[in-house]
Amino acid sequence: MGYQIELRHLKYFLAVAENLHFRKAAEKLFISQPGLSRQIKEMEKELHVKLFDRHNRQVKLTPTGLYLKEALGKNLNDLDTILNHAKLLEDGKDGKLNFGYVGSAMHKIIPELLLKFTEDHPNVIFSLKEMDNQKQIEGLLSQDIDIGFVRLERIPRGLEIKPILNEPFCLVLPKEHPIDNVNFKRLSQLKDEHFILFDPEYSASYYEKVMTIFDDNGFSPQISHNTIHASSIYKLVENNFGISIVPKSLQVENNPNIKFIELNKIKQRTVLSAIWSKDNRNPILNHVLELINK
Predict the structure, then answer these.
(1) Where does the HTH lysR-type domain start and stop, copy by copy (predicted)?
(2) How far is CA 268 from the centre of its chain?
(3) How many other CB atoms are there within 10 angstroms of residue 30's CB atom?
(4) How far apart are CA 226 and CA 222, in angstroms?
(5) 149 contact partners, CB below 8 Å, separation of at least 6
């Protein structure tokens, strides 16, 4: 056999299959386009299959190519996880875990989890990345992250989810605002205010839940700003650009220019959940899940 398929050839195929463009795939692989085209043709020849239809400068996967992309994508991710774990062991590390999270999870949940986990596993490396809900779903399915912390009520098949924090919402007001914990009765008292809310693209389901709070109070909010960071919300509130509603876990005590009123008499609550893939083979993930499930 004059040509043998190696791991790099499978990665070449996946790069073209994901980009459907030989030049873009070659740039990502740091090889020449003619070289990449030659490797793919040799692979097709060796396997006696046609992986791509090429015509009018368009590249499309054949049914065989589509099957191979789906099958290889999953298994090569598993192989990368195994090889990366082996390298970490050689370096004296027990492994690595990649976290995705919405911002509120970093205020208390994740730091407490990591502190407890490192007591028994001091040699684990953690990678932490703030991501919106949808990006976390994509990252879990592609195994770019091992575990996520989301505010979602529905998840795709193949993923597991466990609620870890069920909490009320809080109003966020400038410190000198006339409404306080003593005279606050209902949200409709603030119907003429401008509201600063988390961007719906950051978490559509969370945004819709917040909207039901306004629905139940009989008015539509005047939304002046949308943002994805709690720190931006607080800066806007303290400078009198509006008021806000956030999960209680985002309440801070070190900002003297804003105040919080817990909305503990409304039915709406928000849930922060851990989420992971059933197919993830990272051995460190199971140890973290054991701690979460305690």
Answers:
(1) 5-62
(2) 23
(3) 6
(4) 11
(5) 99, 100, 101, 102, 105, 109, 110, 136, 164, 272, 273, 274, 275
**Looking at the predicted structure, is the pLDDT value of residue 84 above 90?**
no
pLDDT digits (tens, 9 = 90+) for 180-232: 999 999 999 999 999 999 999 888 889 999 999 999 999 999 999 999 889 99
- What's at 118, amino acid-wise? T
pLDDT tens per residue, range 126-169: 889 999 999 999 999 888 899 999 998 889 999 999 999 999 99
Domains recognised in the chain with CATH numbers: 7-85 (1.10.10.10), 93-165+272-292 (3.40.190.10), 169-268 (3.40.190.10)
Beta bridge partners of 226: 197
Residue type, 188: S
